[in-house]
């Protein structure tokens, strides 16, 4: 079973929507500023749906779009770093 970056959150929808929300396209730009190269939005889509080694990028579906947040990206990176 895959875990989200933060399993203790009781309402991830509310959490994401009260943070600095991003579409996957915008999230790719945000990740680019961190790692120096821009991942394709399908990479972030995979992080949301399948995860990476047991950690998924927190997200919500809103109006046919997948929305994540800057804070969710940070939690994802932190969780991945701890697992490495």
UniProtKB/TrEMBL annotation:
<protein>
    <submittedName>
        <fullName>Uncharacterized protein</fullName>
    </submittedName>
</protein>
<dbReference type="Pfam" id="PF07618">
    <property type="entry name" value="DUF1580"/>
</dbReference>
<dbReference type="InterPro" id="IPR011474">
    <property type="entry name" value="DUF1580"/>
</dbReference>
């Amino acid at each position: 079973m895959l875990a989200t970056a933060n399993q203790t959150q009781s309402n991830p929808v509310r959490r994401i929507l009260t943070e600095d929300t991003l579409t996957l396209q915008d999230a790719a730009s945000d990740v680019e500023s961190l790692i120096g190269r821009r991942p394709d939005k399908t990479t972030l889509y995979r992080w949301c749906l399948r995860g990476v080694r047991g950690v998924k990028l927190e997200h919500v579906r809103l109006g046919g779009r997948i929305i994540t947040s800057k804070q969710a990206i940070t939690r994802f990176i932190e969780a991945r770093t701890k697992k490495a």
